[in-house]
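In full, the data.
>
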Amino acid sequence: MDHPLILPVHFPRLLLLTAVLLLPLATHAADPLAWTNPIVKQRADPHVYLHTDGYYYFMGTVPEYDRLELRRAKTLGELATAEAKTIWRKHATGEMGAHIWAPEIHFIGGKWYVYFAAGGARAVWEIRLYVLENSSANPLEGEWIERGQLKTGWESFALDATTFELRGTRYLLWTQREEKSKGTNLYLAKMDTPLSITGPHTLLSQPDLPWEQWKYWVNEGPAFLHKNGRVFISYSASATDAHYCLGLITADENADLLDPKSWAKSPTPVFTTNEATGQFGPGHNCFTTSPDGKTDILVYHARTYRDIAGDPLHDPNRHARAQILHWHADGTPDFGVPVVDGPTAR
């Protein structure tokens, strides 16, 4: 006959102490939607990519406009303290020498790509689109190779490139100025490789409404979202001060996305400054989800004050923020208002 296991009298207390010590870890693991805004300070134009390895990869425009940084974390809440690795720096001369803006990281065909905008070292406003490539499984390792300018079909001020795939076709979505236009517009084209477009491009939206024309005529920073049988593209409008806001265009998922008639534009902005929550100029967003894909998340930048001394581009305090994206009964996104800084609220 086996003897029963004899345990010390203090064993229940050991179990209790162990449980208490492990409680924060268990709670953290059980709630991946817990974060505190801002999620990353002084990073404008935030882009978050949730990869199949379970990491959120984060990039944003640094205030110095001189380099590309990459960080990753298992939760959005851990991005603030994640190590930021500089993966590339601007050139001392020639192209890609100034105004390093709005980087986005994407995993396509087994490789990593970063799309970003840059001006010349001397011609700082000759902004164009450029691409980096990395074959490593972990983009924080390996070598980032310059793949040069992403040609759009004409040479002019261009920025804010993003890419998405729908029904087996990959698209490039970006911002550019045409010769006769007063401001920047949104364009769409098919891609034949991660480095190039093919076929005609389509003008999707231009700043033709008053709220898109404050100080500057602007449509920029497009972001793709696919849900409920529709394709949604959000974008930023007006100057990058408290008037900065998000607009939205929508198409059916089965429509020809290169046909301008497939798209409907919201007559009013969908996400704007909110004095009650202390958030000013929310914009240049992206979309991500919870790790299980069940909860949609809006990531964007905003300031905590209205008045800016001098050029808004020289103000470093556009912080990256995140909040849960809700949905209207008709299947369209409900952006709500930019939430107050602090822990997230459901």
